Prior knowledge:
The protein has 310 residues and is of the alpha+beta class. Helices cover 28% and strands 19% of the residues.
Amino acid sequence: MKLPESTSGFAVVTFERVFDTKPKEDVLTLPELVTGLTAFDLKPALRKAIERERTRITAAWDQWNCGEEGTSKLWRGLDRARKEAAAAGKDPEHAVRAQDEQWMKNAKARAKTDLRLFSPAHYEPGAKRGRAGVVHLSCLVLDYDGGTRVAQARRTWERWFHVIHSTWSHTDAYPKFRVCLPLAGPVEMASWRPLWEWSARRAGGEVDPAMKQEAATYAVPATPSRQADRVCVVHGGDLLDPVVEGLVPWFAEPAPPPGPLPKKGTHFRGGVEGHTYISEWTESKSPDPEPDPVSEAWLPEDDFDWDMGA
Length: 310
């Protein structure tokens, strides 16, 4: 597939973890951007760690539910929730169930704290993560996590070049994915909100409104196993030009050229040292025009609920 022409680089920052505040800036060519958006960081160790924790939580709950005396820290936590609720005149059984559900939710959310994050933003020199440090944005990124089918999102954005990649908790039965539309030029902060609101209306309310902020961050493409359902689409077309579409008055000044590549690399420039990637696209390899999700049979140990929202 021939990629559209671009007169400027695409500024993208990455963060090591969810609590990292120091942006690591890249200014990418379009092939580099697309390569990074279609390279899935393979994270089987994270998957196993979450599964182990969920297994421990389930074991403690089963002991409690059967009236057995337990010795684990989790069982004692359930007992403590019961006692505190009783002392406060509340329903002990409800409190125990609520504690179990909260632990399970926390275990599922662990992916959000482990995966690297990115934002299509250019930051002021020395600025920390957050809206105050953002100068402009290079891409429109939209999260679809409400069960919209990939084909529907493709039809919405088929006029313009875009990349679609599934997110950590995606399954074919309940799709969760991201649409990234590289822009024909960077959009400054003051013009961003009208552009995002236009995109939300065009998507018919199917995208996550929590990601409208200029400093919104997204997990880089990642997958829990080689067998997990994945989707990768690189759709040809012209770059979305918000000036031509009448959405912004002008483009911002392009970001300066990128600095030296960090010692361990970055997700978008060659990958991070020590990480394994499943690459779904190169300039000489394009996904099928009507791609099907990877749907290899689950191994018994892979039959697991991955509804983590990452």
